[in-house]
Design a protein that fits this description.
alpha+beta, Cytochrome Bc1 Complex, Chain D, domain 2, two-stranded antiparallel sheet
């Protein structure tokens, strides 16, 4: 018991110093859950080496490298970590070029022989920043029906703006669920998202994804480059990191909200931003620290076409669509899926398609009113 208390105290100190802007545990976790959070915290920061299964092609040797802005579990920056996807559009149909190692390109390799390149067949090559994982357990605990009901409400209120539910099949339980994680809402469960990231980003095979991805699809090259038996996740990072993300708190709330930010919130709603950037979900969970919590993510978790699509199809998500981004992160740049917007007004300016009227309403505001919305989003 004394050891557990010391673990909790150490975690509390870390949360105070390192996670001032988020990245700490949810309030109200039990001692046992806090110990699992600490175990996952360590796994998230642990470097994996090639003799342990890293690669042979990979994007990073530890999860924290791509999820550290502004704290553990956050997003990436264009200068530090991006995910490159490639494919081919032929006759309007997207081919992820899986036979050539697609659609994810791994930027690094354990040796030059194992390195991947974008194949010449690709005519679509895009880059995305990674999405933050704050409050993942709260998001996972939103019942599917709440998201389905939100889609129906949007359809009834304004069909031209309404989003689409992305139904996905879970790798872990083989069930159909409403997708909610990732740029295309391509994952519904935390453990599925973790397992897929371990394979795609670390090259670490695991219980859910036990088959190694060959560099550019070359099985002969894989045999020469990878001598570690599959699955390679011998330290059970899959479950440790999944528990970490389930218990990871939301971004820290400000101690004081200014009058300007309060005005900005009212304007945010009045111009129509909250139609897609919705904040009305409630978590339902057997975990007491999660159950009944308001999940104010400012996202309906639905697919929309606002003119920023990258051409990549993932599951039922079209190349023109993205899931509404979460805005509870404190709105640190970069913005949009590829990080090209360096300010909130720049990101709003990129909204077209289904969001054209909301974009126009924002820029019809006075400069002071626009600044108030920005203040609210940076709260």
């Amino acid at each position: 018991m004394r050891c557990l208390v010391l673990v909790v105290l150490a975690l509390t100190v870390a949360a105070t110093s390192v996670h001032a802007k988020g990245g700490g545990p949810l309030p109200g976790l039990t001692d046992a859950q806090l110990a699992e959070f600490k175990e996952g915290f360590d796994a998230f920061r642990t470097q994996v080496f090639d003799l342990e299964g890293l690669g042979p092609a990979y994007n990073g040797a530890r999860c924290y490298l791509c999820h550290s802005n502004p704290a553990l579990g956050g997003l990436s920056t264009r200068s530090r970590a991006v995910v490159t996807r490639f494919g081919r559009i032929d006759g309007g149909v997207f081919d992820p070029l899986t036979a050539h190692g697609g659609s994810v390109l791994q930027h690094k390799a354990i040796s030059a022989e194992c390195a991947e390149v974008v194949p010449p067949e690709a005519n679509v090559v895009i880059q995305r920043i990674v999405t933050p994982t704050f409050g993942a357990g709260l998001i996972e605990a939103i019942p599917d029906q709440q998201i389905i009901d939100r889609a129906a409400a949007e359809q009834a209120a304004n069909p031209a703006r309404a989003g689409r539910v992305h139904m996905v099949t879970s790798v872990s339980d083989r069930g159909q669920h409403v997708g909610r994680f990732g740029w295309k809402a391509q994952n519904a469960l935390i453990i599925d998202a973790v397992g897929e990231a371990m394979l795609n980003e670390l090259g670490l095979t695991n219980a859910l994804f036990p088959t190694e991805t060959a560099p550019n699809g070359d099985l002969g090259l894989l045999a020469r480059c990878d001598a570690v038996p599959d699955p390679e996740d011998t330290r059970d990072f899959l479950n440790k990191i999944s528990r970490l993300l389930r218990y990871l708190g939301r971004p820290a709330s400000p101690s004081r909200v200014s009058d300007v930010a309060t005005q900005g919130e009212a304007l945010f709603h009045s111009v129509g931003c909250s139609f897609c950037h919705y904040s009305g979900y409630t978590a339902v969970s057997p975990i007491a620290a999660i159950d009944g919590q308001s999940v104010e993510i400012y996202s309906d978790l639905l697919l929309h076409d606002i003119g920023t699509g990258d051409g990549v199809v993932q599951g039922g998500a079209r190349g023109t669509e993205f899931r509404t981004p979460l805005l509870w992160v404190g709105m640190k740049h970069p913005f949009l899926h590829d990080g090209r917007a360096r300010s909130i007004p720049d990101a709003v300016d990129a909204h077209h398609g289904q969001a054209q009227d909301v974009r126009d309403a924002f820029f019809a505001l006075s400069v002071a009113e626009q600044s108030a919305i920005v203040k609210f989003l940076k709260r």
